[in-house]
Amino acid sequence: MTLTGPSFLSLQVRDLDRAAAFYETHLGLRRLPVAPPHAVVFGTEPIPFAVREPVPGLDLDAISPRPGSGVALWFHADDAQALHDRLAAADVSILTEPFDGPFGRTFAFADPDGYAVTVHDKV
Question: How far is C-alpha 91 from the chain's CA centre?
Fold first, then answer.
């Protein structure tokens, strides 16, 4: 038996409509036409990404310092600097300013639920 790697990624969010709109509007992700009623799935490659309602009993506000602490969530963009500039202009919280590193131009921001998301532009 061989584990081949991640095949799906989702974030549990406080407000599904707000989170989905954020990822569509600010990051340009597109919804897939089919998703469970408690989630919005985006057509990201190579791994599908979704936002979903929290599982019963999960209190996102009780997680400190932010949901997802300890997990590194990275997205590739064709122009990380341009995306950073667009997010900063929209008053999205920038956690790490852009820098050049082994993954190209890289920066991190906080989504509406406080998840840290890193963006890079090297393939």
Answer: 16
